[in-house]
Amino acid sequence: KMEEFLNLTQLKTSLKETILLDYYTAGFWWAKEMNFSLIQLSGFMDLLNFALENLSGKHMTLGDNLKELERAMVAGIGETESEEEGDQNLFSIEQAKAIIDYLVTSLFKHYKAYEYLFHGRREEPVISNE
């Protein structure tokens, strides 16, 4: 289902698409194990996409991407999860710390590899009778 949602059409022949499917699927299952609500799960997947899009589409450096992620997360973090007090925040501080740890482990520790995936020059494969 994730393959369909992400519109990955060349999964069997594209290493890039395979890596993207793994990235999003692993993130989805991690968020499910964290018992995030549907809204939190959606917000978390948006953060995954945000960080990856900053790298792939905007060519952001690791430092710039971390700064942008910090800005995005500050908007969705609250001291409490109480809706009675009118708190509109998406994640608690503990959840936000866990999300940051997850992103560090899943994306930022491997930033150079992801940069190469999106921006590295690759030679076209040569297919011949030989």
UniProtKB/TrEMBL annotation:
- Pfam family membership, one: CLAMP
Parts forming coiled coils: none
Q: Which InterPro entries match?
A: CLAMP
Domain of life from the UniProt record? Eukaryota
State the name under which the record lists this protein.
CBCO1 protein
Organism listed in the record: Thryothorus ludovicianus (Carolina wren)
Q: What is the lineage of its organism?
A: Eukaryota, Metazoa, Chordata, Craniata, Vertebrata
